[in-house]
User: Fold pectinesterase from Senna tora.
Amino acid sequence: MKLFIFTILTISLLSSPSLAISPQKPYQQQSTKFIRTSCITTTYPTLCYSSLAKHAASIQTNRLILTNTALNVTLASAKYTSALMSTLSKNRRVAAREVAALRDCVEVVGDSVDELRRSISEMGRVGGPNFFEPTIMSDVQTWVSAALTDESTCIDGFEGTMNSEVKTIVRTHIVRLAHLTSNALAFINQLASLHA
Assistant:
């Protein structure tokens, strides 16, 4: 059991989206500086920079693209985390209580995926004829905040007396996802305040 859980944790950490940073090209220096400076304003600046730096060529110095990229990186992490929880919940060596908590996580992280998708879709309207329309930004803020709440609900399901390797795996991935979501929300809030 321990070997299985250790293997899952190792594979999941190595293959988790946005952990690797590509070597920087000279033309990306201004873009990476913009990303680093923007990330300082988030709650988790190190994770923010490591998750966005490899997208520097597309972000350049555009705050809207930065925000959209942060949302897309968060969505990729949410989908990956949901799939991992689903896989763990089907393993027969996982205790029944943990399986129940994992299934709850799959459900709430699934809700988070839906909310992030809706946010990304709505952000697609920003910059068009409804450039920074307050109701659009308000909807996006609401959905991303709801996604963050769902992620916290998953973590809560593993609190209490449960003390296992499964809990460690869940916490590792859900906490990272929640931090990515928090950073994306910070960028959304900045956009909303700049164009209020």
